[in-house]
Design brief:
The chain is globular and about 40 Å long. The protein contains three helices and four strands. The termini are far apart. It has helices at about 10-15, 35-55, 80-95, and strands at about 20-25, 25-35, 60, 65-70. The chain is of the alpha+beta class. Strands 1-2-4-3 form a four-stranded antiparallel beta sheet.
């Protein structure tokens, strides 16, 4: 996976494959609502593990029963890269285990 900035077309194509994700201020973003604070905390722990596996970290916010991610690549000047979409894809794979459809 490269940390080269993606073109606008590449971003649009990849975003189309990630329902629920959007662009906000140049960052790839998504919020999840869970059944409780404990469930939201569990999702955060799993996201943190995934981030460490990828060695790619995002802004991750834990609310009472929500988890919000804002993803971009600092080393690419804040642009979106393959790493950002890989992290988003992996988070989407975690969601069903936490009761998120």
């Amino acid at each position: 996976m490269t940390s080269e900035p993606l073109s606008q077309k590449e971003i649009e194509d990849r975003l189309a494959e990630l329902p629920g994700w959007s662009l906000d201020g140049g960052k790839l973003t998504r919020s999840y609502r869970l059944g409780s604070h404990f469930a939201a905390t569990g999702l955060v722990v799993h996201i943190a593990r995934t981030q460490d596996e990828l060695d790619h970290h995002c802004d991750l916010t834990l609310g009472y029963n929500t988890v919000t991610l804002a993803v971009h690549t600092h080393s690419a000047g804040g642009a979106l890269t393959d790493l950002d979409f890989e992290l988003a894809r992996r988070v989407e794979q975690l969601a069903p285990a936490h009761g998120i459809q």
